[in-house]
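Worked Example 4.2. Read the sequence first, then its structure tokens.
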Amino acid sequence: MKGGGLLVAGTTSDAGKSVVTAGICRWLVRQGVKVAPFKGQNMSLNSFVTREGAEIGRAQAMQAQACRVEPSALMNPVLLKPGGDRTSQVVLKGRPVGELSARGFFGTGDARLGTGLHGGGREALLATVVECLQELRSSHDAVICEGAGSPAEINLRRTDLVNMGIARAARLPVLVVGDIDRGGVFASFFGTTALLAPEDQALLAGYLVNKFRGDVSLLEPGLDMLRSLTGRRTYGVLPFRHGLGIDEEDGLAVSLRGAVRESAVSEPAGPEVLRVAVCAVPLMSNFTDVDALAAEPGVVVRFVDRAAELADADLVIVPGTRGTVRALGWLRERGLAGALARRAAEGRPVLGICGGFQLLGERIEDEVESRAGTVEGLGLLPLRVRFAREKTLGRPHGEALGERVEGYEIHHGLAEVTGGEAFLDGCRAGSVWGTHWHGSLESDGFRRAFLREVAAVAGRRFVPAPGTSFAALREQQLDHLGDLIEEHADTDALWRLIESGTPADLPFVPPGAP
């Protein structure tokens, strides 16, 4: 196999494309295949920084880990980071090139993306995406591509470069994933197929059922009927598994009230548990920062949006956000700002990360993100923030609490710390900590030292379990995804699809979209 490929599409958003892509990648790499992930265009507030300083979607970084390769900007050439209901920052090959409205981005090609495309327009974007995919395919045995949303968004087909647009440009076979746990999976498979133009249908090889509960034999008559209706086979039925939704693309897709990050082990090592409340601020970004906390035995992590929900928390985290000033206003409107101030006055722990760190300071000068000018912060940390047009992207490392720490930075705000104790690149004042470093809690020794400090300040007899390795737990999850593919998909048929492409004799399912 050399230069093989596959596009994993879905009947809907959150059908399981990201985890299925990761699972196929891990299955292939265990067969000795040199494989890479790819997503032409991603819309997400969860992003990551490569070692070269390029920003890509966090899901593609996770898929790169499934492939056991270093993440690269080639794996996600276009990243859209929403800044509101109608605008997004466009990140091209790892670098921000401008802000665009949804109408401008999905328009007729007259929109410009800064100077990043030397002419702008969707044609230039598609050419960039195709070039990146070709470069990956030339250096790997296989590239497993992930689509976005649904390939049957017929209103967007003309400007598509992540689903059938890239599939047709690169002649990729397409596997459509459907979430049967939602219901209506057969209608979704058939409708997705029938809405595609004949040229697109010719690339749609078949289907993969995701999140099935029960006896597969009861499903088989439906799969047989689907094949008779569409001429396309089903490549597998994956069972429902809890806790496999790692590194989700977008925290805005679901309501976070009462959401709990599942702990890998529920029993605490000491006599008490530690309760962590995460403020679900607007445009929340990189909320995956708290996954390492949830992996600790005896740590319970909840997302909250009401002041009363902070009352029993031993630690409150204000996470990153793409709208720092907007998040600050939201905290004030909902009474959370006052609750945070009372916690600080009482000596109860608070941690701010990136945008959450910035709004804990004394003052924010923002003529870039919100263009709100000078805004008073919460005043819980001795720092002033000024937003720069150039984005800071980096992979810093250092030491805190006597332990080595690694992280990554993605921010426009520059912090001038005027007092307190040094804490990573930020500071600590009493029971309040702040840093720009995402991912720092994935450093095992530092995480345990920080939790011991939090427990001491909170007056809890919580003891972090020795030996918990977040990296090992992540590897275990990725192996579980590979197991799902290996045990519940027709891997021989998948191999032929990746190596040889879509079968040539697939029938057309009317009516096709223009």
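Now turn to a second chain, presented in exactly the same format:
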Amino acid sequence: MPTLPTRAEREQIVRTRGQWVGVLDRDFQFVMEVEDWQSASWGEVYQDTANMQMVLPGEIAPGVQNPLVRWLLQTGSSDPDGVFHDAVTIVVERRGYNGNLRRFYRILDIIPEGGRDYPETVTVTGLDGIEYLKHLPLWADPSTRSKVVQMQFEDKQQGSAEWVSRKLVGRNLIGYQQPGMFHQLFDGSATGLTALTDGYDNPKRWRAMVPEMHRIICSPISSGLPSEWSVVCARWDNAFDLLRPTWEAAGILPIVSLWLPGDYQPFPDHTTLTLPTVVVDFRPVSMLSGARTLAGQGIRSLTRKIDAGDQITSATEFSDAATPTRAGKKPWVVFDCDEAPKVTLRKSTDSRFLVGGKSPKVVNTTVKAAIKGAAAYIISFIPGIGPPVAEAIRTGGDILADLSADHFLNLNEHIDRDRQRRHGRSGYLAIAKQGEANSMESIQKAWQAKTETNGGLSVEFAIADAYPYLPGRDFQLGDTVGFVAWGEVWAAYVSSIEWTSAPGEPVGFTVGVGDVRPVQDPEALFASNVETIRGRLSRLTSTVD
């Protein structure tokens, strides 16, 4: 079994070639380096899964099959299923702000084409680490892990959006991989058994962790940056789908990385990693979807201010402090393009957002209590009623009370008054989102709708040489950057960074700034718009006393 080059060796390769590419097997063990490809792109996308694509030559010399192609296709193997099921990961490293910056992708498709004795080319595609969050159901009671009955109706967590995300994901990962950790006496006190609930960031509660049992761990270390208050209730929901509205509302960036032996320990006070491990993290970002300032004025003090009254009206303004970059620096990257790239300036479409459809638990409880009370009142006023008749009326009241659940719709209206003013008389009326009214979920779903109908700028431009700026060192996904065009500075968050590579060419980058949806092809844009405005208020919800 070949050994993974040391961190110093990989850093030397990156300094020499611009990047290091390797293949890992199903247990994240090193297989081989990759040096030959016809073209390659490795993407990273804001708040969603990104993909990679590599086009490999079938032969590296006449009659000499590419060893990676041979391994991927399992040429000569007697295992009939391995090529269809064995997990494979591609790892790419480039220069970063603290050593190499790493991306990893689990291979999804292998597409050999042409040739006779060997394929002429093999195209490999894969998905990055965010995909792990789309395959993580969140349990109502992750500490019980009973598949027959859960001891609680929902896992309700509240706090800053970053902390709620960290805690829900972290608790469930522990429940899947080391459930006994929930019932250890971590803190050394004599007060009885404790569960990993409120003290997820407390190193004492991690004493029982056996890191070798955990292939995925959510970091317990917060960024230290403020984020919006949120309440999220998990009930066997997909983690990505459940939390994404909160991320969109609060500007939270999910980060999924791969820790390899030789790397710095990510949370040494809590546990020590020894095996390759997927690490989940979260960080608030600026979420500035588009702004325009005068040239020379800079972008470091641009921020989004949310009205404290309605919690949804927002405007861009200058301030004394701004959200730092992921490298901990003040935002300062402004590209001065020789020729301005093609820019899409998108107008916002809606200002009023309706959220509701579910009958909140408190409404169901109140209505049921009122109906049962009415039945009891009727019984008390019928003279000479016998026990059978009284019981029949009482039973009928109970049945009617249960049938009444979810028949009362509750709706909240959220209006961005700044947008409403700017849309004027020609503005659209409203769009609706399903959610629970009179709850924190309502404002989060409204923010999701507001984000999906947002105005801003979209631009993608290729960078062969980012001098004096370097992706990974000076700016990363989610950071605010700007570029000078037509005498103005146009600024927005970095929504995608695609690493590109081709033989004989220096390593390159394609940077997406702002909401990338307006630069999609027309069919994809139309589908996205249909999904945004299509809302059906549903009564479906669980009834709990």
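Notes for the reader: The longest strand covers residues 100-113. Residues 182 and 195 are 5 Å apart (CA to CA).
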